[in-house]
Amino acid sequence: MKRKRETHALPLIKMSTDLSSPSSLEIEVANHYPGLQFSENSLKGFFFTFASLHQHSLKGSLSVAFLDGHHHSKLHGEFLQDFRPTDVITFPPDPDENMAGEICVSVDQAIEEAPKRNLSFVEELSLYLIHGWLHLVGFNDLDDLERKMMRQEEKRALEVVKKHCAWPDFRLAL
Length: 174
Description:
By secondary structure, the protein is of the alpha/beta class. The protein contains 5 helices and 7 strands. It has a single domain, classed as Collagenase (Catalytic Domain) (3-Layer(aba) Sandwich).
């Protein structure tokens, strides 16, 4: 399930931050959703707020990609043979490429799901990023027990973000 960085059509914006001592990650963002706006610092602060909740040895570049539903589903199909819409796809670390992993989120899915789940768009999209991060640090959701643990950790991370008012400043342009 290896993925090459060359698939990004837009340049990556590098944001260096020490997310969890002693490992250091560099966050690379590819915003492929024309109507999505946010500041780099708010996204960096968001990750900094919850990343230290879980021990990990991730190093290198953490790629975060924001995609529209069509391209996200295409990626889902290409790498997981499932073209149905989904919220987040996580690609594992590749130490040989100095990659800590990749989190690809569907902005369209967040727009659609947020009202159904009684969450704001910001909360829904943030949840997708947290979910992707949890996969990178070793959580899975393949069976009922794993899914329950994943939901508990999502809730814990969301509570920390809420407590520190560390939400990314995601906004949709009209």
